[in-house]
Amino acid sequence: MDYPLQRNLNNCFAYDLVPSVEVLSAALRAARRVNDFPTAVRIFEGIKAKVETQDQYKQYLESLEGLRQELGVALREELYPNEE
Predict the structure, then answer these.
(1) Which of 33, 48, 50, 57 has its CA 20 to 30 A from that of 77?
(2) Neighbouring residues of 74: CB distance < 8 A, sequence distance ≥ 6
């Protein structure tokens, strides 16, 4: 089943840029609203794949940390610490 949230996120991450923090915040809230935990985790995977440096990824994590904690979204690296 294809959900509009997933389809729109795929479109968003298809470009060679990372969405703004505001767009990512809205996407995380939408994932929570429809109770789609895997998509919320994948949002952070998409960020990690699209940024140019690890420092940029850390900046996004810092910007979204409060919301991530509020919504209870774990990072893939937290869920699977032994994978790289």
Answers:
(1) 33
(2) 41
Q: pLDDT tens, 60-81?
A: 999 999 999 999 999 999 988 8
User: Which residue segment(s) compose the domain that 50 sits in?
Assistant: 2-9+21-77
pTM score of the predicted model:
0.85
Residue type, 44: F
- Pure H helices in the chain: 4-14, 21-33, 37-50, 54-71, 76-79
Contact residues for 22 (Cβ-Cβ < 8 A; gap 6+):
none
Q: In the prediction, which pLDDT does 40 show?
A: 92
